[in-house]
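To the team - fe (ii) ion complex, inputs and output below.
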Amino acid sequence: MAAAAAAEERDGALSLAEFHATRAGVRGLVDSGITTVPPLFLAPPPGYYTPSSTTASSLATIPTVDLSLPRAATVALVRAAARSHGFFHVTNHGVPPSTVSSAVSAIHAFHDHPSSTTTRTACYSLASVGGVSYATIPIQYSPQFPTPSPVLPWRDTLVVRFGSGDAPPDLARLPADCRDALQEYHRALVGIGREIAGLLSEALGVGEERLEREMKVDGSLMVCHYYPPCPEPEKVVGSREHTDPSLFTVLAQDHVGGLQVWQEEEDGGGGEWVDVAPVAGALLVNIGDVLKVVSNDEYKSVEHRVVLKSSEEARVTIALFFNPAKRDASDLFGPLEELVTTERPARYRCFSMLEFMRSRRESGHGKSIVDSFKIVAD
Ligand SMILES: O=C(O)CCC(=O)C(=O)O
Ligand SMILES: [Fe+2]
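Output:
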């Protein structure tokens, strides 16, 4: 009887294939007037995968780095923030506020204007075509969770690969309404990314150019997330808990909030999810797994996730991932030799980006996999 009821419920529910076939994303579901969350999006109760509920009890104290300070002061702030929190806000970064707000507004408009529905449906594709994909990307779990739940995040994502070096961007597939604003934003962010890479390098004590020389820092992967308003926000996942695989990531966000970071207790005995409050005009930088390794654990790559905060307002964020451009099998990365001493031996073995991304895919794109490259026990 119970099995029959379960089967009936399953048949009545939207399957993943049916959901993708609508080509309308989560925004389309919301437009269809749903008042409850479909099973594909239902997160298990707190404690099933993670030790904590979606509601954070406190606000994270994210350090701020003011780029208009004298260089030595900025470097000191970057060093302290990258070591203690792995996240920092950057202010006085020189990117015009209108460049950031136009890009964020373009993503809002792409989803919110009734007239954009046809464009979104036409773009909908999990696979990248001409450097662009747009879809609700299923959550990738590791094989150790045989019945992953939820299957889908409450989120529609536009991914743009801008091309790097001499490869010209092929952006014909980019929605026309977003094209100029996103290109302009990307141009500005590549500049600020170069500056941040220099600061992070200098803050390791290896000179401003070292990271660039070692790996060529590339900021061509842009990921624009749209988190629609949700009728039952506490039941869904915006972005599952993860660390970024990048060297570092620069995030622009609107005022809604929903990003949380995992803050470990001082004694290492546990931790809690804490909210990251958006700071108007600031860009948020976080260290990724590759830089954690290259820094020989001087810098932290911190776990973060997104919860839904509103049943009224949609949230938009734009993440630009800065990665090593050197991605051949023969390009190996490990702790920089200047950071390896007798007192502080290399904590990781070397690996190529291909090997790193393969491990990450196999482990389900979530938790940091850098431990599998570790050669020194904590
Ligand atoms: O949307 C956000 O606030 C964070 C997104 C994120 O963590 C990511 O894309 O890696
Ligand atoms: Fe992230």
